């Protein structure tokens, strides 16, 4: 059992336990914090996959933006869902069964695919050269410039849409939402 | 060396936990958290395949970056919608937002 | 310097392997130990920093500052720390106990984690990640999370309002900070901190990108929440903001975290824009490089304290307007102009310096002209309301 494998098992266990706590926590603020732990565990897994750049991007996008958004939203909508109300809807047993069956199927496929993987890892590109290659491929006409530009348009549309949807209608809502 | 199947099984487990969260929770924000878990599991899967099979190409990494962008956009719009619904209907339980049902 | 640390590393490795542990495990263990040492040193710096700040602010305000406890008041911080340690930690009645205790830890951890990528001397860096700047930004935003949790878990609506304002300010000013950090990335060709310091061998980036340095300093001061942007924790404002309910050492952690954060951004400015450990003789004697780093950081920290003691506090609407209407468009313009000019300025050295300095100068001139036009337009929009009374005096005003 090499050090890498031990690290993977510890990180994987932490991430999985955090994910389970996310979906079963009765208090949403705690669920948000467990989500942050799961996302941080994912960043460590990205580092284990020898891609430090995407690990830092994961922290920057998920933890610093999405997780803070989720916690602020939980905060703003908190008066309604008291923790005494049931957190799961009526169909949670069926949902659990369905998810378990899906997991069993995926595990079978994963074991089958894993057997076809190469025995030793090819060397990954050095970080500097790999990062430059990634950057160039995002703006290269023969490479991935089209998905890049479409993603930019999507982000602008989401930005404007989120502002318009969450905007207080003029002269409509209560005074505390003004300014 | 860590076998590829370990990464795939972990990603599958995270995906199924997220799926359970989406299907079984009442609060809309909790459903969104399940969706984020599912997207993360997909990212882990993509990166594992990139590392083990095609580590000399960039297409795996570009796919992951696009998934990041899509997840951020979806979380922003989803949370804005939830806040707007809360203002009008005073609830965020997904089963009470059923005005379009007959 | 590097040999000293390598020697210690080798000695500890031999010791632990001699005890029977696996070599790979020993390597991981030593990395954790190094991280613990670095974190402890950076937090213990707060003892000196708080004394320096109190003395300097006192002198700016024409008074003496702490001078009773120990010679020149040097032991004042230790006395304060003892007081905070012995105070009772009160947790309010409906507060979320786990989150309440977790929040100050997150705030301090986010500041200490930045020191892992700080290049202290040639060859002496905690971890030379090649995306060091992005790491600094993302870890810095974990502090925002800590502030939000502190306000939320206090079961106090003023703490909540204060936390909302603080998070709004920190998130808003992160945008020009990131945009201005892209300029040294362009000029150095890399995001790694060691690479940025080494690219400043000829000229510090302060000469190549003065506007970006200014924008970074201003937005970092706003991120920390001190200086003229400290309406969130001022005593006359919203009852001390997000840390009302904190007492004892939990408040002490917020207090220490803020000062170490201010020192950290001074160190970042010194590394990114002033050249870090660069200086005459630094490559040959790494200890000299460490001295230059400490000197430059102290100069920037002095400027940060000077700004705090001099400017009046600004209101929250002025702060928002300043950010979104002025600093962010300016940062975008600086970024685009620097990208274009850097491609045009072929040939290194003084040609590049001249190109960048003139581009920055043109941006400053255009900004000043735009500000004058805007100020005149605002004044003219307000004037008709004042001219209506006294039509009798008009001939005199026209003649005079």
Please provide a written account of the structure.
The complex is a heterotrimer of chains A (179), B (102) and C (400). Chain A has 179 residues and is mainly alpha-helical. Chain A has 2 domains: 1-82, Four Helix Bundle (Hemerythrin (Met), subunit A) (Up-down Bundle), CATH 1.20.120.1200; 124-173, no CATH class. In chain A, 70% of the residues lie in helices and 0% in strands. The longest helix of chain A is centred in the middle third of the chain and has 25 residues, at 52-76. Chain B is 76% helix and 0% strand. In chain B, helix 1 (4-24) runs antiparallel to helix 2 (28-53) and helix 2 packs antiparallel against helix 3. Chain B has 3 helices and no strands. Chain B has a domain at 26-96: Helix Hairpins, CATH 1.10.287.3510. With 102 residues, chain B is mainly α. Chain C has one domain (87-377). In chain C, a hairpin with a 2-residue loop joins strand 1 and strand 2 (124-125). Chain C is globular. The termini of chain C are far apart. In chain C, 38% of the residues are buried. Classes of the chains: A mainly alpha (179), B mainly alpha (102), C mainly alpha (400). Chain A binds chain C through residues 2-3, 7, 27, 29-30, 33, 36, 52-53, 56-57, 59-60, 63-64, 67-68, 71-72, 75, 127-128, 131, 179, and chain C through 22, 24-25, 28, 96, 98-99, 102, 129-131, 134-135, 137-139, 141-142, 144-145, 148-149, 152-153, 160, 167, 171, 190, 317.
Any chance you could write out the topology, listing elements then pairs?
The complex is a heterotrimer of chains A (179), B (102) and C (400).
Chain A: H1 3-24, H2 28-48, H3 52-76, H4 92-114, H5 127-139, H6 145-166
Helix pairs in contact in A: 1-2, 2-3
Chain B: H1 4-24, H2 28-53, H3 59-89
Helix pairs in contact in B: 1-2, 2-3
Chain C: H1 2-18, H2 23-44, H3 46-60, H4 76-86, H5 97-112, E1 119-121, E2 124-125, H6 132-152, H7 157-188, H8 193-198, H9 205-208, H10 210-224, H11 249-273, H12 286-310, H13 316-344, H14 350-382, H15 384-387, H16 394-399
Antiparallel strand pairs in C: 1-2
Helix pairs in contact in C: 1-2, 3-12, 5-6, 5-11, 6-7, 7-10, 7-13, 10-11, 11-12, 13-14
In short:
The complex is a heterotrimer of chains A (179), B (102) and C (400). Chain B has 102 residues and is mainly alpha-helical. Helices cover 76% and strands 0% of the residues of chain B.
């Amino acid at each position: 059992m090499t050090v890498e494998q031990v690290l993977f098992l510890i990180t994987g266990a932490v991430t999985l336990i955090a994910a389970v706590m996310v979906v079963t926590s009765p208090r949403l603020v705690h669920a948000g914090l467990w989500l942050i732990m799961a996302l941080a565990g994912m960043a460590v897994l990205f580092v284990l996959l020898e891609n430090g750049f995407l690990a830092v991007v994961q922290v920057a996008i998920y933890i610093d933006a999405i997780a803070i958004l989720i916690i602020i939203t939980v905060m703003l909508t908190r008066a309604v869902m008291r923790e005494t109300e049931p957190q799961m809807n009526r169909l949670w047993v069926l949902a659990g069964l369905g998810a378990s069956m899906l997991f069993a199927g995926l595990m079978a496929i994963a074991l089958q695919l894993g057997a076809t993987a190469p025995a030793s890892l090819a060397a990954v590109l050095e970080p500097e050269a790999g990062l430059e290659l990634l950057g160039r491929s995002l703006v290269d006409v023969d490479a991935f410039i089209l998905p890049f530009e479409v993603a930019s348009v999507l982000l602008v549309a989401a930005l404007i849409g989120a502002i318009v949807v969450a905007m207080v209608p003029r002269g409509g809502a209560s005074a505390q939402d003004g300014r | 060396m860590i076998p590829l199947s370990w990464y795939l099984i972990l990603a599958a487990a995270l995906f199924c936990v997220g799926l359970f969260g989406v299907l079984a929770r009442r609060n809309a924000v909790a459903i969104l958290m399940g969706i984020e878990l599912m997207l993360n599991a997909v990212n882990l899967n993509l990166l594992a395949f990139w590392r083990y099979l095609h580590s000399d190409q960039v297409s795996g990494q570009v796919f992951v970056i696009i998934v990041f962008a899509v997840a951020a956009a979806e979380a922003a719009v989803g949370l804005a919608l939830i806040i707007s619904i809360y203002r009008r209907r005073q609830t965020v339980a997904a089963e009470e937002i059923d005005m379009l049902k007959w | 310097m590097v040999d000293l640390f390598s020697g210690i590393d080798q000695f500890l490795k031999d010791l632990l392997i001699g005890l029977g542990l696996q070599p790979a495990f020993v390597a991981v263990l030593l990395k954790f130990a190094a991280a613990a040492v670095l974190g402890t040193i950076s937090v213990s710096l707060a003892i000196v920093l708080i004394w320096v700040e109190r003395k300097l602010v006192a002198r700016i305000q024409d008074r003496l500052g702490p001078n009773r406890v120990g010679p020149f008041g040097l032991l004042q911080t230790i006395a304060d720390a003892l007081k905070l340690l012995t105070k009772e930690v009160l947790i309010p009645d409906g507060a979320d106990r786990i989150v309440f205790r977790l929040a100050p830890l997150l705030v301090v951890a986010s500041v200490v984690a930045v020191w892992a990528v700080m290049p202290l001397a040639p060859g002496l860096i905690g971890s030379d990640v090649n995306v060091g700047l992005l790491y600094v930004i993302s870890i810095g935003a974990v502090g925002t999370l800590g502030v939000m949790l502190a306000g939320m878990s206090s079961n106090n609506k003023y703490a909540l309002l204060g936390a909302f304002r603080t998070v709004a300010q920190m998130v808003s000013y992160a945008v020009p900070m990131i945009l201005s950090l892209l300029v040294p990335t362009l000029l150095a060709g890399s995001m790694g901190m060691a690479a940025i310091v080494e690219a400043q061998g000829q000229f510090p980036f302060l000469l190549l990108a003065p506007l970006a340095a200014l924008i970074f300093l201003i937005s970092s001061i706003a991120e920390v929440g001190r200086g003229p942007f400290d309406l969130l924790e001022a005593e006359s404002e919203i009852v001390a903001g997000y840390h009302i309910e904190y007492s004892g050492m939990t408040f002490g952690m917020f207090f220490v975290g803020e000062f170490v954060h201010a020192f950290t951004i001074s160190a970042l400015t010194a590394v990114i824009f002033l050249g870090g450990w660069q200086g005459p003789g630094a490559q040959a004697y790494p200890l000299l490089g460490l001295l230059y780093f400490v000197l430059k950081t102290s100069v920037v920290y002095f400027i940060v304290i000077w700004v705090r003691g001099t400017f009046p506090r600004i209101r929250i609407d002025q702060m928002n307007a300043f950010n979104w209407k002025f600093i962010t468009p300016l940062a975008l313009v600086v970024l685009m102009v620097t990208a274009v000019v850097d491609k045009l300025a072929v040939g290194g050295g003084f040609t590049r310096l001249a190109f960048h300095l003139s581009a920055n100068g043109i941006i400053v001139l255009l900004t000043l002209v735009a500000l004058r036009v805007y100020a005149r337009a605002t004044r003219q929009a307000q004037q008709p309301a004042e001219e209506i009374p006294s039509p009798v005096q008009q001939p005199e005003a026209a003649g005079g």
